[in-house]
Amino acid sequence: MVHNITLIPGDGIGPEVTDAAVKVLEASGADIEFERVKAGEAAIKEYGTPLPDEVLQSIKKNKVALKGPVTTPIGYGFRSVNVSIRQALNLYANVRPAESFEGVKSRYENVNLVIIRENTEGLYSGIERLKDQNTAESIRIITRKASERIVRFSFEYAIREGRKKVTAVHKANILKVSCGLFLESARNIAKNYSQIKFEDCLVDNMAMQLVKNPELYDVIVTTNLFGDILSDLCAGLVGGLGMVPSANIGDDIAVFEPVHGSAPKYAGLNKVNPTAMILSSVLMLKHIGEKDVAMKIRSALRQVLREGKTVTYDLGGKASTTEMANEIIKKIEES
Ligand code: NAD
């Protein structure tokens, strides 16, 4: 069965890593027809907006998208395309697995955890204003409905993926009302899942624990900003941002993208690591029921990382993005 999927190459290093992932998908025999749409800087030139309507229309029609990173200007200017897509399509769960791979040098060899980040509210609700020239205000929205939904999603994910523990991360000692509501919601939902261990942890302590003892954690569920920061920390535990994929999941739509951004200083150099984008397409293949093809790509990637001969600069190698992708394709063809 052919799968129709929206493809958003993005900008900066997006088109390079997307190209690499698409070539790997083609070599794997995945039966996919991509519908390419522009978002980010490429779209501003053509449509005057970084997020033309046709992007959301295409994702709504196909239900699944593979997306490269998109630049968000700092300070004033266009609102983040990434946040807008997640909110417009109600992609409430951002799933970010961080896993150690043999051959990838990092502080630990045994990290295998998943951060599940609430994706639609919190401090990323986009409600900000200058009250006067010297006072800025951001509003943090936390609802019982979204908190219960993300915690329920995390327990269901844990059961589906054979995981054993869910840790809810918050700052309810200081943000007593908003994080208090998140924690109360988490505790309520946890009562329905006695087969999975549940604990909670303050976000500052969590940051320290993750650096010291990451092997103690399994599924971590948290609010939007904390999840954004902790997942970059976890990327650092497994070899860097070039290694970590993500999925944005809603009730019937899913968008897969690397955790990393558009890394503008590397754009066009054919230099960055395509792994995060390739692993994002592996998550996508699992989501559309193509588990065998997903495993084939994963095991080819695993081999290339283990050998460490044709890997990019961030992994201590000299290969270009294209050369690393070609090596993965070679392993797929040999399998
Ligand atoms: P970034 O993730 O783009 O890059 C930070 C650093 O991480 C890079 O300088 C590089 O050293 C390393 N890195 C990132 N991806 C890599 C890869 N594939 N291989 C090797 N090294 C890699 O973060 P940033 O510089 O803070 O953000 C740049 C832009 O990207 C900003 O406009 C930001 O808003 C945007 N962004 C977009 C997304 C998204 O599209 N989902 C996510 C994060 C950031």
Compute the separation of the termini in Å: 23 Å
Can you tell me the CATH class of the largest domain?
Alpha Beta
Oligomer: single chain
Largest sheet: 10 strands, mixed
Radius of gyration: 20 Å
In short:
This protein has 11 helices and 12 strands. The chain is an alpha/beta fold and 335 residues long.
Explain the overall architecture.
The protein has eleven helices and twelve strands. The protein is an alpha/beta fold. The strands form two sheets. Strands 2-1-3-12-11-4-5-10-8-9 form a ten-stranded mixed beta sheet, sandwiched between helices. The protein has a two-stranded antiparallel sheet with strand order 6-7. Strand 8, helix 6 (178-190) and strand 9 (197-202) form a beta-alpha-beta unit. The two termini are 23 Å apart. The chain binds nicotinamide-adenine-dinucleotide (NAD). Nicotinamide-adenine-dinucleotide binds next to loops. The site of nicotinamide-adenine-dinucleotide (NAD) has 19 residues, from loops.
